[in-house]
Specification:
It comes from Kaistia soli DSM 19436. By secondary structure, the protein is of the alpha/beta class. It folds into 2 domains: 136 residues, 3-Layer(aba) Sandwich (Rossmann fold), CATH 3.40.50; 80 residues, DNA polymerase, domain 1. It contains 10 helices and 6 strands, in the order βαααααβαβααβαββα. It has a 6-stranded parallel β-sheet, sandwiched between helices. β2, α6 and β3 form a beta-alpha-beta unit. The C terminus is likely disordered.
């Protein structure tokens, strides 16, 4: 397939790419710590350290066999991070964390961008999550998503190829017939490079790109994504001239 052939489906990472995951995770951790007297005197830097440690620990736990669902990974990762910092985790801490992560709002530009794309492409989400954990978050986007494929369905987390292969089987496409839009370099760009998927990197955090996994385009958010993927107004097919542009 040509690099510029129109895709049959646009797939998206969800957490961070479409919705405000980083802010939600920070709020969730603050909510948990606020119930622990020994943590109430911590400054923002110390709380931020917990947030980053939880993110790192949970990503590591996702790749450790046997497979465990994402809710279990988050609960156990939170408990371990708290113990390492002298806190005594309680049985309800994990549920308090999860309750804050069940309905995460989209980034401001996302609903309008996806609404524009919806008229032209099938839309799918490929996410390291559980069906029940992500359901309300997907609904909050306000645009119908044709396929929501989770690690819970595939029993595999990105960057494991099995999650993408499972998604493509459900959608009914080959890797070359999709464009994947994601924020993660290891979890999204690396996999796309290995599987031959065209990737658009959403660089919301102004990160430095690993050139080994270079995408076909880099955008700061989803605002201009519909124009990047739009059909030519002259009916000449997909905009090949747009692909490869970068706003970073």
């Amino acid at each position: 397939m040509s690099m510029f052939q129109k895709p049959k489906c646009i797939t998206f990472d969800c957490y961070g790419t479409l919705v405000q995951w980083h802010a939600a995770l920070e709020r969730a951790v603050r909510s948990v710590l606020s119930t622990h007297r020994e943590a109430q005197i911590w400054n923002d830097g110390r709380t931020g350290e917990i947030v980053e440690a939880l993110r790192t620990r949970s990503m590591s736990e996702q790749q450790r066999p046997p497979y465990r669902d994402y809710k279990t990974v988050l609960r156990s990762s939170l408990a371990e991070v708290m113990l390492q910092r002298g806190l005594s985790p309680r049985s309800d801490d994990g549920e308090a964390l999860l309750s804050c992560l069940r309905d995460i709002p989209p980034h401001p530009e996302v609903p309008a961008a996806l609404a524009r794309l919806k008229g032209e492409f099938r839309l799918a989400i490929i996410s390291n999550s559980d069906d029940d954990l992500i359901a309300a978050t997907v609904a909050s986007i306000g645009v119908p998503i044709d396929f929501v494929v989770t690690s819970g369905q595939a029993h595999a987390y990105k960057p494991d190829h099995r999650l993408f292969r499972h998604a493509h089987a459900i959608i009914g496409v080959s890797p070359e017939e999709t464009v994947h839009v994601g924020m993660g370099q290891v979890t999204d760009l690396k996999v796309c490079h290995e599987l031959g998927i065209r990737a658009v990197w959403i660089n919301r955090l102004d990160e430095t790109l690993n050139q080994d996994w270079a995408p076909v385009s880099i955008l700061p958010d989803l605002t201009s994504l519909p124009d990047l993927l739009a059909r030519s107004p002259k009916g000449e097919g997909w905009h090949s001239a747009e692909i490869g542009s970068s706003e970073r």
